[in-house]
Write a sequence for this structure.
C-alpha cells in the first residue's frame, strides 16, 4: 500500500462524525511535540480540517519525516526548538496541546534530566503562556502516573503506586508533577486545563528502531524479519494496546468538549499479556520467529489496563480498532513507501 493512502486512511479513522470541525477550523493551536508519533497525527488532522498549527518540536525523539510532507501546508508552521528554552512570545494561538516529552522507557532512562524538564519547566512555561492569554491547555499525561497499579482496570480516581526515586521516576514523577502544576494553575489562576492519561498506543509512525522501540513496533520488526522476538520478563505482565487513530480521536473529542479541569483515561480496555501480544504479531506477520525471554525491566508494572467509563460517559468515546486490524495497518505502514 502507498504511504499516502495509509495517511488518508488513518486520518479518516480519526476524523469521524464525532469531530466538531467548526471548533478546530476556527482556531490556531500551539502543539509542543507536534512532530512526534501522536503529535504529528494531531497536527495533521487539525490542518486537514482547516485549523492552524504551530508545532514546537526539537526532534529529540522523532524523525523529521513525520512532518516533512506537512511543511508545504499553508496552515502548518514548524518551530524547531526545545520547548524548555523556546521563545513563544510571537506565537498567537487559541489553544495549546503539550505533548513534548520522551516517552520510551529505554530512552528516558538514558536521558533522565532531559525527560524531566519538558514536563516541569516546559509545562510551567506553557501554563504561564495560557494564563497571560486566557486560553485552554491540554496535557498528555500517561498511565505511568499509576505506577504498578493495584486497581485494575484503573480509574482516574486511583492515586498510583510509584517509586519516586526509581529508574522510571524521571518520567512517572515528571508527569505527576506536571499534573499537579496543571491543577494548581487551574485552581489559582483559572487556566482551563484538560489532562488526558494515555495508555500504550501503537500504529503508523511509532518508531521501532534501536533502544527507542516500544513493544508493538519492536515485535513487529523482529517478527517481520524472522528474528527472535525478545520479551523482557516472563511475558505474563499485561498491557492494553490502543490504535493511534482511537487515541488521537479521544484527545480531539476531549479538546473540543466543554470539559475543563478534568482528568480522563484514553486507552483500550482489552488487557492482554505481552506473550499474547507476541503471538498475535507472529500470526499477523506469518512469522517463523522464536519468542525468547530476557531479564525483566526494572520496576516494570505487572498489569496495565484503563477503566474508560469516564471517557465513554463524558465524551461518548470508545476505541473502535481491534488489535489484529491495528497490527496489520502498522505492518502495512512499515512496508509502505
Ligand atoms: N505513545 C504512547 O503510548 C504514550 C503513552 C502515554 C503517554 N504518552 C505521551 O504522549 C506524548 C507524545 O508521545 P509520543 O508517543 O508521540 O512520543 P514521541 O517521542 O513520538 O513524541 C514526542 C515529541 O516530543 C518532542 N520533544 C521531546 N522533548 C522535547 C522538548 N524538550 N522540546 C520540544 N520537543 C520535544 C520529540 O521530538 C517528539 O517529536 C508524550 O508526552 C508522552 O509522554 C504517549
Amino acid at each position: 500500500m502507498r504511504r499516502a493512502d495509509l495517511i488518508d486512511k488513518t486520518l479518516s479513522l480519526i476524523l469521524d462524525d464525532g469531530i466538531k470541525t467548526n471548533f478546530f477550523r476556527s482556531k490556531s493551536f500551539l502543539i509542543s511535540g507536534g512532530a512526534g508519533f501522536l503529535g504529528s497525527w494531531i497536527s495533521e488532522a487539525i490542518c486537514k480540517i482547516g485549523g492552524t498549527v504551530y508545532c514546537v518540536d526539537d526532534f529529540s525523539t522523532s524523525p523529521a519525516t513525520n512532518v516533512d510532507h506537512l511543511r508545504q501546508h499553508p496552515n502548518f508552521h514548524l518551530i524547531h526548538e526545545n520547548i524548555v528554552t523556546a521563545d513563544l512570545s510571537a506565537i498567537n494561538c487559541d489553544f495549546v496541546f503539550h505533548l513534548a516529552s520522551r516517552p520510551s522507557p529505554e530512552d528516558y532512562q538514558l536521558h533522565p534530566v532531559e525527560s524531566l524538564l519538558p514536563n516541569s519547566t516546559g509545562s510551567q512555561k506553557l501554563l504561564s503562556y495560557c494564563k497571560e492569554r486566557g486560553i485552554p491547555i491540554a496535557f498528555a499525561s500517561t498511565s505511568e502516573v499509576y505506577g504498578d497499579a493495584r486497581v485494575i482496570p484503573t480509574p482516574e480516581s486511583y492515586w498510583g503506586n510509584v517509586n519516586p526515586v526509581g529508574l522510571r521516576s524521571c518520567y512517572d514523577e515528571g508527569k505527576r508533577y506536571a499534573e499537579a502544576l496543571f491543577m494548581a494553575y487551574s485552581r489559582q489562576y483559572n487556566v482551563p486545563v484538560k489532562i488526558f492519561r494515555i495508555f500504550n498506543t501503537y500504529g503508523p509512525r511509532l518508531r521501532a528502531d534501536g533502544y527507542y522501540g516500544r513493544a508493538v513496533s519492536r515485535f513487529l520488526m523482529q517478527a517481520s524479519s524472522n528474528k527472535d522476538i525478545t520479551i523482557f520478563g516472563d511475558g505474563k505482565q499485561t498491557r492494553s494496546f490502543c490504535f493511534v487513530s482511537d487515541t488521537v480521536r479521544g484527545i480531539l473529542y476531549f479538546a473540543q468538549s466543554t470539559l475543563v479541569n478534568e482528568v480522563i483515561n484514553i486507552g483500550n480496555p482489552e488487557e492482554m499479556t505481552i506473550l499474547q501480544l507476541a503471538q498475535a504479531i507472529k500470526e499477523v506477520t506469518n512469522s517463523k520467529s522464536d519468542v525468547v525471554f530476557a531479564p525483566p525491566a526494572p520496576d516494570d508494572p505487572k498489569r496495565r489496563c484503563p477503566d474508560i467509563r469516564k471517557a465513554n460517559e463524558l465524551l461518548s468515546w470508545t476505541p473502535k480498532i481491534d488489535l489484529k486490524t491495528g497490527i496489520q495497518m502498522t505492518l502495512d505502514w512499515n512496508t509502505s513507501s
Remarks:
- The domain at 3-200+243-268+306-320 is CATH 3.40.50.720 (Rossmann fold).
- The radius of gyration is 19 Å.
